[in-house]
Specification:
Layout (H helix, E strand, L loop, with lengths): L1 H16 L3 H16 L3 H7 L6 H8 L4 E4 L5 E23 L2 E23 L5 E10 L1
Antiparallel strand pairs: 1-2, 2-3, 3-4
């Protein structure tokens, strides 16, 4: 009986620590939705000087980095990197009597996008300045 608890308790701990597939999918989708809020269009259309810090978080989600400038005013940074990978393959086979001819082609395309948003706040926690950088390669 005593040795049984050394087997059951670790198994219970293992199974209680694992997430189910639907939970993992929900976590991934939540992260993707948060990233979807930070786009060039959203920055250009909704971010403006005088905007409150609460409205900024509501629009873009929480920043990756919070720091201060030399006058102890807050500076928030959002930094996003996405990688798109496309892989295609095609093949064919032809038979002439007993001889065969095979053909196979693989293509992989990879691109990356980066978007960095820097928002500087004044002493009243209102946006005083912002800048962004976007690259696609």
């Amino acid at each position: 009986m005593r040795s049984l608890k050394y087997v059951i308790f670790p198994l219970l701990a293992l199974f209680s620590a694992c997430k189910s597939a639907p939970q993992q999918i929900n976590d991934v989708q939540a992260a993707q939705n948060a990233d979807a809020r930070l786009t060039l269009g959203t920055i250009e259309s909704q971010l403006h000087n005088g905007m409150s810090s609460a409205a900024v978080i509501e629009t873009f989600g929480p920043p990756n980095i919070v720091t201060t400038d030399d006058q102890h005013r807050e500076v928030w940074v959002w930094d996003r990197i996405s990688t798109m990978r496309a892989h295609t393959n095609s093949g064919g086979w032809a038979t002439i009597l007993i001889l065969g001819i095979g053909n196979k082609a693989n293509t992989t395309s990879v691109s990356q996008r980066t978007l960095t948003l820097i928002v500087k706040f004044d002493d009243q926690k209102k946006v005083r300045d912002f800048s962004y950088r976007y690259s696609n390669f």
